[in-house]
From TrEMBL:
InterPro entries: 4Fe4S_Fe-S-bd (IPR017896), 4Fe4S_Fe_S_CS (IPR017900). Keywords: Iron, Iron-sulfur, Metal-binding. Residues 29-58, 60-89 form the 4Fe-4S ferredoxin-type domain. This is 4Fe-4S ferredoxin. Residues 13-28 have a biased composition (Basic and acidic residues). The lineage of its organism: Bacteria, Bacillati, Actinomycetota, Actinomycetes, Kitasatosporales. Residues 1-28 are annotated as: Disordered. It comes from Streptomyces ambofaciens. The keyword Zinc-finger does not apply. The keyword Metal-binding applies. SUPFAM superfamilies: 4Fe-4S ferredoxins (SSF54862). GO terms for molecular function: iron-sulfur cluster binding; metal ion binding.
Amino acid sequence: MKKIASPAALSGRAERIAQRDRSDAWKKPPRRIEKSECITCDTCLRSCPAEFGAIFDRGLDVVIIPELCSGCPACVLECPVDCIYVDEDWTPTDDAMWNHIELTAKGA
């Protein structure tokens, strides 16, 4: 069952969305989903803690936004096909995805 984040934690997420940047306090690298192994079951999306909300379903694939991912193992522990890996060499999220995230966040 997904925990509900505190208002302060959610405001931290909103700030990361506005800044489009990872928290400097996070020491672990973000995670990534290997598209060729993913079955798009959305289990990872449902298991990602609300204060991070780093996983999005884009229709044909599920993606982890590295700037929102703290590197915690919550999604990894729930993935039925083990397709989530540490992403040491992550690249910044593109503007089109950020625009989608901002629209989604405003509806929440």
